[in-house]
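Tutorial, part two.
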Amino acid sequence: MERNNAVLELNRATFVLVTEAHRGMARAFDAARVGVLQAVAPNPLRPSEIGERLDMAPSSVTRHTQALEDAGHVSVEADPDDGRTCLIRATPDGIEELQRLEQIGNDAFSRVVSDWTTDDLHTLTRLLRRLTSDWAERGASARARARQTKPTRWRFRPNSAADGGQR
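Running the prediction step on this input gives:
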């Protein structure tokens, strides 16, 4: 029972952290766009490769790529190996934008953990890397098992007994 409670608390704490981080990032930038830019920063990629890496629909890859191209952060060029597709490449301005965002994030983290010891920082980093690795290794099978259960769905049913037939 102790372990179950510890896992539950970790699950809750992780959910809150991810939710708050996502909310904060969404106020500062478009996370999906940054994901596309990060994906192509090391090497140019085809749109299909970006979609696979980011679990993103082709139309979303196209939309974000167009916005990044309009901003001057990526260039789109013909794929010399496959005339049916293109390669998306980060521009120097795109790399600079990633560095700017990383610095903003680092400044925010520095303020949040300003009273943490270096040992605390190393411990959390080590454990987060372990959690990320284990999630990558076992997360897909855990999610597949979770999908096999039939969750209760919230549905609006007009004139249902639950709302006294009022709608």
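The chain has a mean pLDDT of 88. In part three we will examine how such features are distributed along the chain.
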